[in-house]
Amino acid sequence: MRLYRLPTATKIDDLTFTDAPSPAPGHGQVAVRVRAVSLNYRDLMIATGTYGAKPPRAGLVPCSDGAGEVIAVGDGVSRVKVGDRVAGIFHQKWLGGPFSEAVPASALGGDLDGVLAEEVVLDVDGVVKVPDGLSFEEAATLPCAGVTAWSALFEGPRPVKAGDTVLTLGTGGVSVFAIQFAKAVGARVVSTSSSDEKLGRAKALGTTDGINYKDTPEWGKEVMRVTGGVGADVVVEIGGGSTMGHSITAVRKGGTVAVIGVLTGGEIDPRRLISRAVTLRGVYVGSRDAFEAMNRAIAVNGIKPVIDRVFPFEQAREAYRHLQSGSHFGKVVIRVG
Ligand SMILES: NC(=O)c1ccc[n+]([C@@H]2O[C@H](COP(=O)([O-])OP(=O)(O)OC[C@H]3O[C@@H](n4cnc5c(N)ncnc54)[C@H](OP(=O)(O)O)[C@@H]3O)[C@@H](O)[C@H]2O)c1
Predict the structure, then answer these.
(1) For position 166, what pLDDT does the model report?
(2) What does the buried/exposed string (b/e) look like for 170-206 if buried means 16 or more CB atoms within 10 Å of the residue's CB?
(3) Who lines ligand 1 at CB under 6 A?
């Protein structure tokens, strides 16, 4: 079977297309024929050596997010059967409850080999069945981007409810899911983007107020203005250092900034957090329970993940470059087979 590896990880061209024997599932494991993989910003950072303090293990199979069908099961497997349509969960060992020391490091495409391969073997506990109404390409967008947006909105101490205001930043994978989920629950959605055209597409998905952050550099104040001086109940903060100050301006007193992304660098002023009694809540994707709760909501509400473009398996590097360009809206997907 064919797969990609990263013998080194300094640039996209380090992605190496190669062959390996088909893996066989052991006790408690399943073999999955991967049909589609979606890219996350993290995959770009890992391939270019900018993700963590240490480079990834030489030869790592990249990517956390894939969907496919079960083609073989090992002894002791009853949760799924051959033919089931499944996706791997991001943290293979985080099944439920809070993230803690009890959850071993087990992120696909980082701690463990990932899914940019025609066949993978995963622990049966590390897969979920995907919603029936979704194609493999759509289902492949869920494990990181979908679950992160879901966790930001619904897995904290104050889940978003109808009538709340959610602020999303940019129109990448996480943010577009957040727009869709917030809309489904009846929240008002304020979205920023560098592009008026993308803001138009966000409005078609449920955004009520769009703000171009290039034209309106003080976009936090604009969020305050459009919300009548109240601010957002939750900010889906994917920007990092240079956006955080504006996000804190945009959040309501006592509101929550879900801290997710590191697209930009910069420093924050803690005094404004204190005077507005804002909660900063770190989000690291989510558990299997969160994934399954999200899948139920996707099925009930008929939510379709937004795919910007699908690339063939042989063109994974081009898919990475497309993500890197930032021209996408929603998710970039690689069709594996
Ligand atoms: N903590 C977690 O568990 C977790 C999980 C998933 C992702 N993340 C992080 O979240 C971030 C987004 O990930 P992703 O996969 O959704 O990325 P992505 O699909 O590549 O989205 C990137 C988009 O972000 C927007 N953006 C870029 N710079 C911005 C800025 N200064 N202000 C506002 N928006 C900006 C742009 O949208 P426009 O073109 O519309 O401006 C860009 O297209 C990354 O830092 C990623 O590492 C973290």
Answers:
(1) 98
(2) bbbbbbbbbbbbbbbbebbbbbbbebeebbebbeebb
(3) 40-42, 144-145, 148, 169-174, 192-195, 198, 213, 238-239, 242-243, 260-264, 283-285, 323, 326
